[in-house]
Amino acid sequence: MTSQNVPPNAYTNSPEQHRNLILGSLQLLFWLFFHPSAWQNHLKRIDPALDTQSNSKRGLRWQNPALWKLLIQAFLVLPVLANSIFVALVLWLLGVPVEKIVWGVASGVASGVALSVALSVALSVALSVVSGVASGVALSVALSNALLNASGVALSVAAAVAAVAAAVGGAGASAWALMANILLTIILLALKEASDVASGVASGVASGVGWGLASGVALGVASGVGWGVGWGVASGGGWGVASGVASGVGVGTINLWLPVVLYPFLTGWNILLYQLDKRRTATKPSFLPWHSAFWDEWQRLPLQGLDEHVLLVMRRNPEEGKAALNYLSTSRQRWAAQEVQIELDARELERCEDVAAIGKAYRNLALGELNSPVSWLLISFSHISEDVEAALNQNSAYNQRLALSAVAERLNGLIRELTRSNDKYAVSFQYIAFLWNEIITDYVQELAEAVELRQEIDNPYIIGVPLTEHQEIFVKPVDLSGTYISTRIEQLLLDRRRPPLLLYGQRRMGKTSLLNNLGRLLPSTIIPMFVDLQGPVSSASDSAGFLYNIARSMADSAKRQSALTLPSLKRETLQDDPFTRFDEWLGKVEEALQQNIALLAFDEFEALDNAITKGRFDEEDVLGMLRHLIQHRPRFKVLLAGSHTIEEFQRWASYLINVQVVHISYLKQPEARQLIEQPVHDFTLRYEANAVERVLQLTRCHPFLIQLLCAEIIALKNEQDPSIRRLATLADVEAAIPDALSVGSFFFADIQSNQADAAGLAILQFLAAQGEGAIVSRLTILQHFRDKSDALNLLLQRELIEEVNEGYRFQVELIRRWFASSLSV
Questions:
Q1: Sign of the dihedral defined by the CA atoms of residues 199, 200, 205, 209, in that order
Q2: What share of the chain is helix, strand, coil (3-state, %, to 5)?
Q3: What 3-state class would DSSP assign to 722?
Q4: In this structure, what is the dihedral angle of CA atoms 502, 506, 507, 511, given to the nearest 10 degrees?
């Protein structure tokens, strides 16, 4: 951490080593037993070749001073410290005065090191020369290093201990110490020789260090660890230290029982730190970095009170608390990070004081990979927050009231569910639900009073977003034969051949609105499962994310439209074999359906095709999965919705055979008139007859364009005097057209960008310039645009133009006006 608000070397697996040679050496020993990640990262900083998980075959850079410092600390400092401390402890227990122990240790270390160096150098040179003549340089180095390190370390230890004992304990102590060290040396030499013979020169490096550490642990922490590390460094070099020590510590049985033995002591230590922090002022540094959770990686038992300590620090120093939280989230104490995050989320939700804050709350919730009993609660509040934001984005107070009233109903249901729950979080989250419900209900009342006070006309029209099942304005669309689209879909779903369906129509023709409302239009035995392919599904980074988002959308839709709870599917389950695991999950969903039928509706399938084209997903995997689902899962019916035909995407046509097209187009005049004159119950605006006819002419009963134009008519009327406000005239309709073109520019721009190619746009602009209702002959168009018959046919297919008496004109006057206005820009 580089921030001044976070203590240096805290909350990290890559702390810096202390600069002092002695303290730094002890720090290395501490890392080996308690913080192996810090040890590994320290080795990486010194030389990447020391990383045991690296595939690098590059040799060590021996000119690196940091590497030599590591060798000195591991080979010289740690063994001397370990043996000296051990001997000093024994002598102290024997009653030797402290001053004699200090002097003896100092002189023993000095003489022992000197003798070790002298003997080691002599043996190394002699043996290297002899063995080099006999067997070559490579074998010479291996043998000389082996004997050098074994004898050097052994004699160093023996000399040091003997010198200390002779100085402070007399001949008896000296003899005892010398005999003990000689015996230890003989055992280790024998074991090392056996290891070298067994593993060979090539593997001697790694096995030497590993065995060195293992034997060190077995023979005692004080002397064994120091000797094992030193011997491993000398015989194995830098790589040996990295692999041998790390693996020795990682697999050592000490890490199985030591955390349990230390747990009571660490618990007391951690409680003491927490109590000290509670008494400290907020301006002083916290004791949290000293908590064992941040330096003891092996402790698997939950460290009680850790979450409270982190919360305390979070209140005083949010930046430090966040750093601690991030560290814990990937540690063995992850439970504490979850508890802290849950508490923070609850506080965040409780702090919402108005509907605007509620609408933004979901952005700060940590839903990611939280796996706890409270996950469903946070997800529920997140969805409610998103719905509130969507409601506030409505253009009219009427639609805001309608959407927020639906949210209040959901909160009431959540409150009832929490009342019956025994979950430990139920009480606190129930209070939040009560709070939110009160805020939203009061705001709905304020909106109603404001509209009444200003005598405004409620604007029920929805612009730019699909209609949900809660919105009264929805009008059931019909096909060209006058049959309701929902009835046609129901008939095809009951077809024994189980053909896939394509709901096809122009942009903003009401496809998504229809899918959102299928739950109340179809029989209860058909469970709609709506999946928006424009959202997270197609933007997922891999197949596991793709299928996880599909499953989540299916579950949300089934719950919302039919109150059916599907089996859960975790993202982790999909990691190893995504499509197989997803297929297994579909089997569980079929069991949950019982005798019902699932309608799996994929909206905007073009977005998925685009993702496949970009190589984000494999074509055969994705489309093969759909084909397999259609052919082998009789409880599932597949419906695709889009503004393109399957034939325009050949890959889809080859996988989805016998697709049945359900064409959704303009409203019939009776439905269009209802949408204009009586969109909702008690609508207070009345239209003159010629005004209604003009709206029909301008929009050609296009559902989106009717709403767009009528919404602007209401906005215009609300600015007029109340005496003339509630009657719309032909002049009002004409006056609202410019604003409708401006507000709906995103719709018209989509036509220009996605519905026609360059040649088609040129034809549209040419037709638009001819005026309202103008028909241009095919011959005239082809004279102006040679060899553009394909572009003309595409415009016909997109329902932008129509053929009349061997000529062509715009189908919709408002669309023509937009293209005409773009010519003058």
A1: positive
A2: 70, 5, 25
A3: coil
A4: -40
pTM: 0.50
Residue 129: pLDDT band (50, 70, 90) is very low
Vertex 201: Cα angle to 200 and 202 (nearest 5): 95
Residue 341's φ and ψ, nearest 5 degrees, are -65, -40
Rounded Cα distance between 184 and 87, Å, is 14
Strand order in the sheet with 526-532: 526-532, 597-603, 636-642, 501-504, 660-663
> Above pLDDT 90, what percent of the chain?
16
Is residue 288 packed enough to be buried (19+ CB in 10 Å), middle (13-18) or exposed (0-12)?
Answer: buried
Q: With contact defined as beta carbons under 8 Å apart, do 515 and 528 qualify?
A: yes
Task: Burial-class residue 639 by CB neighbours within 10 Å (0-12, 13-18, 19+).
Answer: buried
**Side-chain half-sphere CA neighbours of 791 within 13 A:** 17
Three-class HEC string of 492-560: HHCCCCCCCEEEECCCCCCHHHHHHHHHHHCCCCEEEEEEEHHHHHHHCCCHHHHHHHHHHHHHHHHHH
What is the SS3 string spanning 347-398?
HHHHCCCCHHHHHHHHHHCCCCCCCCCCHHHHHHHHHHHHHHHHHHCCCCHH
774 contact partners, CB below 8 Å, separation of at least 6: 767, 809
Question: What is the DSSP annotation of 293-338?
Answer: GGT-TT--S--TTHHHHHHHHHHH-HHHHHHHHHHHTTSTTHHHHH
Neighbours of 424 (CB within 10 A): 9
* Lowest mean pLDDT segment, chosen from 36-50, 231-245, 387-401: 231-245
Q: Give the integer Cα–Cα distance in Å for 462 and 507.
A: 15
User: Interior CA angle at 631 toward 626 and 635, to 5°?
Assistant: 90
> Looking up tokens 């206005």, which residue turns up?
821
Q: Does the pLDDT at position 63 exceed 50?
A: yes
Write out the two tokens for 678: 């009586």
Please answer whether residues 321 and 313 qualify as being in contact, where contact means their C-beta atoms are separated by less than 8 angstroms: yes
Contact between 55 and 34 (Cβ < 8 Å):
no
Cβ neighbors of 75 (< 8 A, separation 6 or more) are: 153, 229, 230, 233, 234
φ, ψ for residue 727, nearest 5 deg: -135, 120
* Closest alpha carbon to 209 in 169, 179, 250: 250
End-to-end CA distance of the chain: 54
Residue type, position 704, single letter: F
- Distance between CA 465 and CA 474 in Å, rounded? 12
Please give the structure tokens belonging to residue 137.
């340089």
Q: Kind of pairing, strands 776-777 and 801-804?
A: unpaired
**pLDDT tops 50 at residue 521:** yes
Residue 397: count of CB within 10 angstroms of its CB: 18
d(CA 707, CA 676): 8
Residues 6+ apart with CB under 8 A from 546: 537, 538, 540, 578, 617, 622
Tokens 């849950």 label which residue? Answer: 342
DSSP 585-622: HHHHHHHHHTT-EEEEEEE-HHHHHHHHHTTSS-HHHH
Q: Cβ–Cβ contacts within 10 Å for residue 825, how many?
A: 4
Helix (H, G, I), strand (E, B) or coil at 460: coil
